[in-house]
Design a protein that fits this description.
Layout: H1 6-18, H2 23-31, H3 37-44, E1 51-53, E2 76-83, E3 86-93, H4 104-120, E4 124-130, H5 139-155, E5 161-170, H6 175-179, E6 182-186, E7 191-193, H7 197-204, H8 210-214, H9 216-223, E8 228-230, H10 233-244, H11 285-292, E9 299-301, E10 309-316, E11 319-326, H12 337-352, E12 357-363, H13 370-374, H14 377-390, E13 395-404, H15 405-410, E14 420-423, E15 428-430, H16 434-441, H17 443-448, H18 452-467, H19 471-476, E16 481-482, H20 488-498
Parallel strand pairs: 3-4, 4-5, 5-6, 5-7, 6-8, 11-12, 12-13, 13-14, 13-15, 14-16
Antiparallel strand pairs: 1-2, 2-3, 9-10, 10-11
Helix pairs in contact: 4-5, 12-14, 16-18
Length: 516
């Protein structure tokens, strides 16, 4: 048999590496409705842009006859490429090789591209499909996870980190995605949990499926762990690409700005017809958002979790912004624990990566009750307050209707650093609503009246005439301008343009100690 040339050997090894765990396992992967690690990268990256690093890496384990099972690449494909021309670093775990389990060398490959991403200032995207730590390697694989976790924290706020869960992610494997900026999951084929259904059953005697315990729907609606639940892998990858279009390469860059020709008339007549006549009647704040931002540019984040607050990215006049908005169509837009944490996390991401913030306010206060108090609404509500106070990006607030009590302060008020504060004429800015205020201020007068109901209504009307408007706040300078709703878009485009060179120095410190 003729000896292979060096080039033939190279080509043979490349072909072997690209086959992962072999054709039979690839076929099995496809039968479960999943793509392979390389197929996912082909969909994610620009054509012919992927450059692989570590194709020929092999594990070093010699226990349990593992030396007899060697696969080039060791269960993860790593490298760099471009998405819409922008440099990104990627790793894609290969479930056909030892179930995508993480070994010492598997972890080293991931750490290498994370280090490169930080040195070169580009996003890191992880496509996760792993059964967890490789048991045969013991502590080496656990050490590999910790090496990745450490780099996740070093990269946090330096470069964007995005995690797509494309299959099982269990045990220690869940913590790297949890440390990244955004998590995307695929319905019915991906799941995340610290302990699986069998352990849950043995400890708590609960019967629960993988999907019920840690599937995309559970984490999108109940825990809030995932920001996006996608119907399939193709949709998940499209979401990744769209998400990247709103954020910069790193913390030193400004948020993306696309060419936009400002029109002579940026008015939006439909914004004048959204607010109900009855102040207690709900409306969908998404209609306000869509009326303000560039057409079809709103990209909602965490849509199915804590629905009383809406967060997401959009473009306004071609400029990328982050939107935080109370949602009066759900729980009257009240702030509770989940809404506060959801919004705080989003605000901190935007601030870390220079994405300006637009805050739309219609909030009756914080949700009352023993459940909220005992679970820590004080500390959790303070997280949102802290996030807005800490943010130095351009911040514009618009009060559409209610802004009551401490929630007025928390929702990016002038007092905690908002640059511009607008209000619609329908805005109501007060400590409490009219009825509650009248019952406290005029209690004795109401109690002494022959017709208590009539006297109460009289005092409610009196209080509302005084405070259920934006003009007391405007007189104090807490509101910069009361504006016609139809003129909102023009005001915001000009406001964000004016603020584009904003700089702000914060006190010197090692790091802050936000209320966690």
């Amino acid at each position: 048999m003729q000896k292979q040339t060096p080039l033939q050997t190279l080509n043979q090894k490349i072909a072997e590496a690209k086959l992962g765990g072999g054709q039979a396992r690839i076929d099995k992967q496809h039968k479960t409705g999943k793509l392979t690690a390389r197929e996912r990268l082909d969909l994610l990256l620009d054509k012919n842009s992927f450059e692989e690093i570590g194709m020929f890496v092999e594990h070093r384990c010699r226990d349990f006859d593992m030396e007899k099972q060697q696969f080039l690449g060791d269960g993860v494909v790593t490298g760099y490429g471009t998405i819409n021309g922008r440099l990104v670093y990627v790793y894609s775990q290969d479930f056909t090789v030892f179930g995508g389990s993480l070994s010492e060398t598997h972890a080293e490959k991931i750490c290498k591209i994370m280090d490169m991403a930080m040195k070169n200032g580009a996003p890191v995207i992880g496509l996760n499909d792993s059964g967890g730590a490789r048991i045969q390697e013991g502590v080496q694989s656990l050490g590999g996870y910790a090496d990745i976790f450490y780099r996740n924290t070093l990269a946090s706020g330096v470069v964007p980190q995005l995690s797509a869960i494309m299959g099982p992610t269990a045990g220690g494997a869940v913590y790297s995605p949890a440390l990244t900026d955004f998590i995307l999951m695929v319905e019915n084929t991906s799941y995340m949990y610290v302990t699986g259904p069998s352990v849950v059953k043995s400890v708590t005697h609960e019967d629960v499926t993988h999907e019920e315990l840690g599937g995309a729907t559970a984490h999108a609606t109940k825990s809030g762990v995932t920001h996006f639940a996608c119907e399939n892998e193709v949709a998940c990858i499209q979401h990744l690409k769209q998400l990247l279009s709103y954020i910069p390469q790193n913390c030193e860059e400004d948020a993306p700005v696309y060419a936009y020709e400002t029109k002579d008339d940026e008015s939006r007549p439909e914004l004048g017809n959204i607010m109900p006549q009855n102040a207690n009647q709900p409306y969908d704040m998404r209609r306000v958002i869509e009326g303000i931002v560039d057409e079809k540019s709103f990209f909602e984040v965490h849509k199915d979790y804590a629905e009383n607050i809406v967060v997401g990215f959009a473009f306004i006049g071609g400029r990328s912004i982050g939107v935080v908005a109370n949602q009066p169509a759900y729980l009257a837009g009240v702030l509770d624990i989940n809404a506060s944490v959801k919004a705080a996390r989003f605000v901190r991401f935007c601030d870390a990566f220079n994405v300006p913030l637009l805050v739309l306010v219609d909030v009756p206060g914080f949700l009352p009750g023993t459940d909220q108090e005992w679970k820590g609404i004080i500390t959790n509500g303070a997280k949102l307050l802290y996030a807005f106070c800490e943010a130095t990006v351009p911040k514009i607030t618009l009060i559409t209707r209610k802004a009551y009590g401490g929630a007025y302060d928390v929702m990016n008020s002038k007092h905690i650093g908002a640059d511009l504060n607008f209000a619609w004429p329908s805005a109501e800015i007060a400590v409490v609503g009219g009825k509650a205020a009248a019952e406290i201020i005029f209690k004795h007068e109401i109690d002494a009246a022959d017709d208590k109901a009539a006297k109460l209504q009289e005092k409610v009307d009196n209080y509302n005439d005084t405070f259920a408007n934006p003009y007391k706040a405007a007189a104090r300078g807490f509101i910069d301008e009361v504006i016609n709703p139809t003129d909102t878009r023009r005001k915001l485009i000009k406001g964000f343009t004016m603020l584009e060179n904003k700089t702000m120095a914060m006190p010197r410190k090692k790091h802050s100690n936000m209320p966690l």
